[in-house]
Amino acid sequence: MLSIGDAFSRQKHVVPVDGNAAAAYVGYAFTETAFGYPITPSTTAFELVEQWANKDHRKNIFGQVPTCIQLEHEGGVAGSLHGGSVAGAVASTFTSSQGLLLMLPNIIKMKHAQVPTVIHVASRSLISSIGTIECDHSDVMTVRASGANMLSSASNQDCHDLAAVAHIAAMKCQIPFLHWWDGFRTSHQITNVELLEYDELKPLIPQKELDEFRERAFNPNHPSLRMLAIDSSFHFQADTAAAYRFQNVPQIVQESMDELAKITGRQHHLFDYYGHPQAESVIVVLGSTSQNISEAVDYCNAKGAKYGVVTVHLYRPFSPEHLSKAIPKSCKVITVLDRVNENGAFTQPLHSDVCAGFMAIGDNRKILGGMFGIGGRELTPSQAAEVFKNSLSEKPRNLFRIGIVDDLMHTSLPVPEEIDMVPDGTKQCIFWGLGSDGTVGSNKESIKIICKETPLYGQGYFTYDAKKSGGLTRSHLRFGKKPITSNYAIKQADYIGVHCINFPRVYPVAKELKNGGIFVFNCPAHNAKELEKYIPKATLRQLYDKKAKVYCIDATKISIDCGIPGRINLIMQTAFFYLSGVLETNHAIKVSKDSVEEQYGHSGEAVVKANIKAIDSSIDNLIKIEMPQEWGQFDPTPISRFANADAPELMKKAIFPIFELKGNEMKPSDLIPITARIPRDGLGSSKYEKRGIATNIPVWDADKCIQCNTCAYSCAHAVIRPQLMKHGKGPEGVKVLQSKKFKGYDFAITVSAHDCLSCQVCIEKCPTKALSFPLATEEVVTKAAALYDKFAKLPDIDALREADPALNESLEKKKWTADGSQYYKPLLEYSGACAGCHETLYAKMLTQLFGPRLMIANATGCSIVWSGSFPSQPWTYNSRGQGPTWGNSLFEDNAEFGLGIAAAVAHRRFELKGIVERFIKSGEKCDPALMALFTEWLANYDKGEKSLPLSNSIQDILKTIPQTTGLFGEIQKRYDLFVKPSVWIVGGDGWANDIGFAGLDHVVATGADVNCLVYDNESYANTGFQTSKASPRGSVLKFAATGKDKPKKDLAGMFLQYPDVYVASCVIGANAAQTVKAMKEADEHKGTSFIDCYCPCIGHGVRPTMKNGHKQAKLAVESGYWPIFRRKPGQKVVLDNPTMKKEKLADFLKHESRYESLRKIDSKRQHDLQELLGKDIDQRWQRLQELTK
């Protein structure tokens, strides 16, 4: 397949690429030193730069291979950019959002340093107490005062063209440029882009200015000083002198645009106007939304309107003269739209600039301001038409919002009925898929095939929910004979593919299908009657009314038969090509097969053959469904799956609508309760979601079960649980076992079928094969769900413990064992983690051991996505309403955030202790039982486990006493501080080893009573598996495409140097009992503890799937790859795997693609690096052995 790599050999070519790739291609050309750090959504751009430099050794425009270096965080990137620039190299980077803010101090430093640095930004919303990774302009607008020049791209082609302009202009004016485009909508959307040859770009280098820049560089042959501390008497004058150079920037940028236009034929201006030459109303806007407004301009002008739109390219320095000239003199009203909400500001940045600028130059036309698109919300052409309508109304609304119904401040324009303004002849397709089924990958390939194999223009845009590999994805594909400029979700689809059997039950999958459209569903139905089992009647009525062409294909069964269970992407892609007619079928199949080697070659020949077999099996298994007239009689009103849910009002009002993809319809007042925090009524929402995406589910066989609970503590999503019930009180007609551990109780294993992800770990781990794994057919799932519901109606473990002190005592004794812990309700359930995830195993275990008193500070990364993404909240609470309290600050400051929590709670509890002591001494009358509890509590004030039952008993009595004054009244106010919390600072290895290491090291050194736990999957998994300092030697990752050549950072070994710190290394998948013991010891330690936890991960390429993650975990321990140990302060290290079997290492490595894939690239390098890895492991083992003596 054609890739961006072909850009180095083709002339005047057009390729389908995303905006990140287009910008990276040009950025690479003009870069000598590149520095980067992964952050969504800019990461893929720097990945390409790193690959071209360090793996492909491609030359840039200067005939060099750029130096490309990954840093520990974006602040470090900015420092290196600064250093690289002042040393005479042309330097660049790519970043987004909070990453850009970390660079701000150095951008300010560089603004007067006379350096041609370029920072490319995929713009993304800044995260506050709530946040999204989608686009708005809050990041770039926050740094607008930095002094960098700011250039905005509005399309993928702009990313290519204006990246060149940014670099050329930066060299000419010797001032840093910030070049940005819309994150995701432009950064990840695939469209046709013409890429220039580097030989064509080379003449644009301003050699004179470049030579002058190099002459100023750091060099002892012509020494200089930078960053002088100066006296205030002349600072103002010096600053003015430095600012003088900005005067010519607009002219320089326009000249650079003109020079590029001579090559491309695409003329850019500082402000590009599109519309009627005598426009009466004009919108001014930044970014990709200008193209949506252009569609509205065309549509409305064809009906007699006189509208226009100005796309702002050069935002800093802002030139009102150029903007005024760009707008037709006939324009009566200018509406400025900002994609940022600066709370507390009277108006927004662009509107403010236009108003002030036009006043300064004497342009007195009416100027309105509006706000749109916050957090990724798109401005549609219909909404743009409403903005034009407002501008020419008798009393136009100013400072408005568009796109929502603002029922609080009443600032919004009406939300209009959507009109399809997409150019005639454009075909539009939507594909509903799962993050793990390959749908997105195949659709990216489809749009590339269409663009290459036909004369059509194409566009591919992809949306994801906040879950990991099992989350909902929606692919939006457009193609047509005209250039596609529709930067918004498809409203009228010609083709809809639904790739998961449960989606019609939970999502409005047919809502966007146009009349006469094609609807293809992955399910086993052969006729209309069978299809009625899988699609709600309201949706069937919708299909009938729209005269849809309905097809079914059992892609899941085909994938299983072909040996690639669940990977249905190529099967559904083949069906798409066959039914859409966009390509001749045989040719489409040939092209698809050709792409298989490129996509799956790294996974081995067997996988390639399996995928080709799946393609060949597709068309013959496609079944057309004839819609009966009966469907036309069905009630068209959808029935909410939450209609009868027994849930708090907050769930019904603010969470369930989002589950049903109705977030766009919600009003601000609906969301007031969750803007600062999610209160208890919003926790545990994941249990209502019931995604039903499993292809197979486990079914318990009581006759084979030995009650070991291995399946429960191995289940990443808390789907499988042991349940106790009074003997003889189990569900009628259901076989249960007499409990081996608790007299007078029966035992069963329960399975929540609708929450299972089919990872198969429980099947692999069960020692007696007491779990079967049948296909998740309608009958199997229905039966399993009904059985689960029966068990759910029984008294839960908390109720049993409260009613039976003997059981409670027995449970408490067994709590600190792997199997005994599983009888406690997991307060992390049904998370958004990948199937077979190991991070959740540790987190779930923490909740079962410490849940009612657990506090978690969680670093940004994978773990905040699977545990902290609204609306699906997996953190929940027990029958007393107690459970984990969880929070996230930033990626870089999590350790300090956790320290702050611990310090505040300790301070408040110490205050309470003093009040209780004074109350006892005061002699005030008090319930004797309560006084006794106070006394006992003081004796156990700092003992976590003992403080919990005492706290509960004290609270129970306090609740019965009316609020009073005095010391007792102060105690009543602090009723929730009696329990000593267990504070855990958790995060991934990228946080702990890199961006957050300084903070983590400082917190560990303080000796504070906190517990630090690292989910170590040895990479930056959340941003796409880039290398971190935790990545071992020889592993193939992004930023280490030919295998990392440096050893893994031994974080636990480093913290062993602190004698007063509890340190442990754990692998729960290999030895859950040791993990439980380490967690218990860490919690009991009066000081800082650190636990490094190994987490096999989907990104490791565990073969054949993550069902073998636990086997890999075991091999990791046995081979010495990951030794497990514990060290209490003042004691020797205890090695919990006392022997190392070196021969096991080869077996471990060959079962992971991250190690094995290097064989295809460079088998000698693989051998050499793995030999060095073995030595690294030996050296670590020897160091640990010394510490045991």
Automatic annotation (TrEMBL):
GO MF annotation list: 4 iron, 4 sulfur cluster binding; iron ion binding; oxidoreductase activity, acting on the aldehyde or oxo group of donors; thiamine pyrophosphate binding
Stored Pfam families: Fer4_7, PFOR_II, POR, POR_N, TPP_enzyme_C
Alphabetical list of CDD domains matching this protein: TPP_PYR_PFOR_IOR-alpha_like (cd07034)
Keywords linked to the UniProt accession: 4Fe-4S, Electron transport, Iron, Iron-sulfur, Metal-binding, Oxidoreductase, Pyruvate, Transport
Domain 4Fe-4S ferredoxin-type: 696-725, 747-776
Biological processes annotated in GO: electron transport chain; response to oxidative stress
Entries under NCBIfam families matching the protein: pyruv_ox_red
Protein name, entry field: Pyruvate:ferredoxin oxidoreductase C
Source organism per UniProt: Trichomonas vaginalis (strain ATCC PRA-98 / G3)
